[in-house]
Specification:
single chain; 140 residues; alpha+beta; Double Stranded RNA Binding Domain; 4 helices; elongated; Pep_chain_release_fac_I; translation regulation
């Protein structure tokens, strides 16, 4: 079975790296679900793969429940009725997981409130305090 997954122009996965096996789907579905193996189990070993070191590091650093302690990605696809559709779904989900791991998020830079915003905040606080003070008992 030739399963090649292209991630980018320079990075792709060979068919021997992705292990796909058919299993019986879980849940309701009547007689068909009990006799047809339409669900798909996809296994991908990150450490044995030909991915660049940067990809491997980022994937292993992810805290995703689909990645085991040994560094194996396990994806179970059983959304569709046919095995072919579930296989495509599993491959697409693997691709999304790998691509989401390599996205570099912009680091947050701490900022300070401006002098004007501090002044406005203090003015509003004192105004609110005056309003509350006027609600007290009136002495004649």
């Amino acid at each position: 079975m030739a399963v090649a997954l292209t991630l980018s122009n320079h990075v792709s996965l060979a068919d021997w790296e992705i292990e796909i096996s058919a299993i019986r789907a879980q849940g309701a579905g009547g007689q068909n679900v009990n006799k047809v193996s339409s669900a798909v189990h996809l296994r991908f070993d990150i450490k044995r793969s030909t991915l660049p070191a940067f990809y491997k590091e980022r994937l292993l650093a992810l805290s995703d429940q689909r990645i085991t302690k040994e560094g194996v990605i396990i994806i179970k696809a059983q959304q569709f009725r046919t095995q072919e559709q579930n296989r495509e779904d599993a491959l697409e989900r693997l691709k999304e997981l790998i691509l989401s791991a390599i996205v570099q998020h912009k680091s947050r830079r701490a900022t300070k409130p401006t002098y004007g915003s501090k002044q406005r905040r203090m003015d509003k606080k004192s105004q609110r305090g005056k309003t509350k003070a006027l609600r007290g008992r009136v002495d004649h």
